[in-house]
Every structure is written in C-alpha cells, then in structure tokens.
Amino acid sequence: WGEEIDVRNHYNELLAELKQKKGEKYSLNLRFRVFNDGIGFRYESPKQSGLTKFTILDEYTEFNFPNDAKTWSLSHNAEFYEGLYREMPLSKLDTVKTPLTIETKAGLFLAAHEANLTEFASLNLYPKTENSTHLKAYLTPWSNGDNVDAKTPAVSQWRTLIVATPAGDF
Asked: Would you call 62 helix, strand, or coil by DSSP?
C-alpha cells in the first residue's frame, strides 16, 4: 500500500489528564505527539463512572498563526475534495475544509489537517474574527445538528499540523 513497506513512526508524546474540580468530576485527556515534521493532538474521553454516552455540540480547538500567509484551500461548501483549491491570504479565509495548506513568508509550508477520522465529525476551520490569522474549529454536523454522538472510552481524530520545506515534502 504505497511507496514504503515500513513507515518510521518516531515521536515524543505528552498525555495531559484533566479532571473537573467540581460537579461530576468527569475526565478528559489531551494527547500530544511531536514528530520531526509536525505535531498532532487529540481528545480522549476515558471510561469513567457516571458517563457512558455523550454528545459533542462544539469544539474549541484553535490555530493562531502569528502572521498573514498565502493559503490554498477548499470552501467547506465544496461537494468534493477533488475541486480546485483557492489561493488567498490567511486573513481573507472563510470557512474551509482541511487540509489547509499555508506558505509562510519565510518559505515554510504548513498543512493543518486531521487523521484517523472514525465516528467523528470532520474538521473545518474558520477565522475567529474578520481579517484574522486566528482560526477556530468548525465540525461538520450530522443531520440532527449534533457533531458527535459517542460512548466512553472515545477518542477524537488527530488534529495535525505538518511542516515541510519544500511543499513537495508533504
């Protein structure tokens, strides 16, 4: 399946285990992985008493880029991923599908995307404010308006930011 029979999967990992101080004291884990060519993180809801099923209505993941940059993306309304990608400044984006490819002024290429999308709403990104380089997650909802219906234990897909120079290294 592809050009390589073996894929090197080396990374450093941090698991942050969070727990509510008050109320139900639910737990949520954040798992971060740092690779030579990017980062990934995801949310994990471990098995826990008092919580077996839950619905995610929104996600507060954000990507804050320090400078405006050139991007290539598809509008989140595009029917197919095989469409023509639009080139525009990061500060002029509307809601876009991932992958969002970014070329910084320093010539570094970034791709914001997702991996291991299973039983979870797909990731889109939109500017937090007009003319902003600060992007927020927007999940594609199910027909009933919910983004995710899950049972513990559950994990989100990986949110990824891949780094390359040149772009062909993606």
From this structure: strand
